[in-house]
Amino acid sequence: MKLLDNKDYNYEDLLERMQEDGFYYQTMGLDKCLSYSSIKYCLKSPKWFQHKKNKPDPESQALRDGNLVHTQILEPQKYDRFHFCDTSTKATKKWKLDVEKYGKANTFTMKEKYMNNRTASAFLQNDAVTSFLKGAEVEVPAIGFVEDIPFRGKADILKKGEYIADVKTTADGVGEVHLKDGTVTNQFAFTIKKYDYDIQAYLYTQLYDTPDFYWLVVDKITTDIGVFKASEQTLEDGKNKLEAAIALYKAFFVDELIDLSQYHKSLTI
Q1: Domains and CATH numbers, the chain
Q2: Nearest Cα to 230, choosing from 194, 268, 199, 261?
Q3: 61-74 vs 110-124: helix crossing angle, rounded to 10
Q4: Would you say 64 and 111 are in contact if contact means Cβ atoms under 8 Å apart?
Q5: What is the rounded distance in angstroms from the CA atom of residue 144 to the CA atom of residue 29?
Q6: What single string gives the DSSP state of each residue in 88-112?
Q7: Going by C-beta distance under 8 Å and a sequence separation of 6 or more, which residues neighbour residue 65?
Q8: Which of these, 141, 164, 162, 165, lies nearest to 153 by C-alpha position?
Q9: What pTM value is reported for the model?
């Protein structure tokens, strides 16, 4: 298969090597393929996409927390690679020495450990979410084409042909919301729109040729659990967003129909 760098790669070899996080996240960067996390930036702004391409985000606290929780839930055999520094802050000499020794990605404070243990334990004790793990694979990579553009993905939980499940933590809540028109929705529905999770849901159903997508959510504050299935409308919204983002990507970065420096929006308000 030919990727964005116009080089040919062996599909099976890529899938095998994408099992390793370093290869998946670093080697398989934007010069080779897109992903949910990158294409959503293009939808936000082609200029923002270009900025992220040239200067990737530093690891945020949310990503660090998610890494701990995901590993504890999905790959507990890898949890021992983490080092927990017995310090309450990251301003101490001890923290800096431990980061030098073990690497920043593998070094956490004991406070981070205890906070994320609470979240992971809530998940692992709940039958409604752990049932998705039965008979399923975890951390399954995929690569394929959408509108001739290569995309990669890594499913948290996959039961091929049945469902994909994504483990999420949130501080936005998972409770019900009563709207002014009398309808009832869930706080996580707003989170889906806020972070364009619907793009991921649709993209993954395509990459894995699997119809159903679920979010398995833990509220980091209350540890309440949510099991949310992507509706047909949510998947359709994700499809529309993905197609719009790909159109922008092609116009600016493939066909170069528009000078990025001249990109602007104009209307009467």
Answers
A1: 11-262 (3.90.320.10)
A2: 199
A3: 50
A4: no
A5: 15
A6: SSSSSHHHHHHHHHH-GGGEEEHHH
A7: 112, 115, 116, 119, 169, 220
A8: 141
A9: 0.91
In the block, residue with structure tokens 């949130």: 170
Q: Which amino acid belongs to residue 210?
A: T
Q: What is the DSSP letter of 257?
A: -
pLDDT tens digits for 221-238? Answer: 999 999 999 999 999 999
Say how far apart CA 200 and CA 156 lie, in whole Å: 12
**DSSP letter assigned to residue 81:** G
Q: Which two tokens stand for residue 9?
A: 């790669």
How many other CB atoms are there within 10 angstroms of residue 110's CB atom? Answer: 12
**Could you give the CA distance from residue 118 to residue 223 in angstroms, rounded to a whole number?**
8
Side chain identity at 180, as an amino acid letter? Answer: K
pLDDT in tens, 8-59: 999 999 999 999 988 998 899 999 999 999 999 999 999 989 888 776 666 6
Work out the angle at residue 47's Cα, subtended by the Cα atoms of residues 61 and 44, and round it to the nearest 5 degrees: 65
Neighbours of 217 (CB within 10 A): 25
> Side chain identity at 48, as an amino acid letter?
W
Query: Would you say 39 and 204 are in contact if contact means Cβ atoms under 8 Å apart?
Result: no
Collapse the DSSP code of 252 into the 3-class scheme (helix H, G, I; strand E, B; otherwise coil) and give the result: helix
How far apart are alpha carbons 95 and 85 in whole angstroms? 6
